[in-house]
Design goal:
71% of the residues lie in helices and 0% in strands. It is mostly helical.
Amino acid sequence: MSSPKISADSAMFRRTALASKKRKEKRFVLLIVRNLLGVPAALLAYAFTLHWTYQSIIQPAFAYAGQRYVPAPLPFVLLTFMIAVATAWMLPQRLTRPSSAVLWVLYAVTIAPTILMSTYGGVLEFQDAVLMSLGFAAAFGVVCLGVRARPVRRPLFPRPTSTTFWIVVVAFSVLVYGYLAAEAGLSLRFLSIFDVYDVREDYADALSSAGLLGYLVSTQANVVNPLIMARGLMSRRWALVAVGVLGQLVIYSGTGFKTVLFSVPALVIVALMFRANLRPRALNFIWGSSGLILVAAALDVQSDGIVWSSLFARRFLITPARLSQQYLSFYGDGPYEMLSHSVLAPFFPNPPYPRGPARMIGYWVSGSPELSANANLFADGYAHFGWFGVFGAGIVLLVFLRILDRAAHGLPTVISSLVVVMPAVALSNTSILTSMLSHGLLAMVILLALAPRRGWGPGASPSASGESQQTSPVGRPFPAARRNTSAVAERAAGVATRAVRPQSRSRES
């Protein structure tokens, strides 16, 4: 007969294992409920805020510029909403890799507004709007499903020492700001967002004689400065945060690019997401976009204007969505560009159009040959090769994201996510090939691949599994990290239960 002590231990472990199983089942059910109800709820709020802002604020104010609003039949509206929800279900629900952050930024800024606004933008017929939504969603869905595979853990390049890496970063920054000072001048005065256009013209004149400057400045603003701020946030070195912020302000004052200015609050918001949870819910991007639209509208109501809605809702969300529709409307009947003004220009002595897609659409929309209406990577792909170009752009993006995940493997997720935010925003306005060279995507991969895996902050050292143990941007352990200890205890209890059972059976026999 078994002793009372062994029987009590066995019963205790059985109760622990049963409780652990029930907790896992509860978490699984909660996850299903969140996906089935949370995603539609977030997108419903997003759809309503986009529709209300466009119909009530943007379209009346910009009707002179061709902004139209056409009420759509309810079945078409519901169909596009279901397409947007189905696409969101294919996205990763947690930010665990840099590719997750890229996909969610691209979805919130480009894919979701393009689909949700396609039926009432007044550019496409209702059937064509649904077709465009299905095509863009399918191409984007291929990318979402393709990045789920486990990344290769082998480093892309041999990594230098931490000291060497940061010396190179500092030297590159000195070179960029010195070059910018020599060609365009530097100013420490804060530039009003209403006075940027004269500065942009001066900067464009400087680029005409120093083409390399544009590549260097975009890399510094989109990749290097966010990396410096991320290092400061993780290590609680606020001087580094101040250096990164000051660097962005200097570039904004010298170029007039408002995106550089708004990158600072965007990075702070992403850092706060990781401070609240080690693996933050990616759906926060959708709720945050809805909140941003409402805050901008509230500021406009208080100031009796449309500045903030025009700046955030129109510039970052509505304009990319309308440009997608305009690209499909113009190139829908062909011929396509076929990269005749880009890498395949030598093979097209007589290109189909006198200008590239951005200048062609800008001229078609406004009548001005100087307007460059850049669209997202999928719309640009359609302009060049039709639907083959849309899916081709998706495949190129998938390959790039797989390389990105491999390059960032072993880094704290918060670091890689902060670095990829601004290059991901660039994909909503340019083709992926242009973004790689001109907006820092390629430099981002190289920088993440060479970045040291240790020394990012208190406790941020690589773990045995190769992933980095993370602390919050203010140095305290993430709440999720503390919750993970209970999961470890549950697994340990399960192992102990399996170990005790054979022992008790042998003693009973």
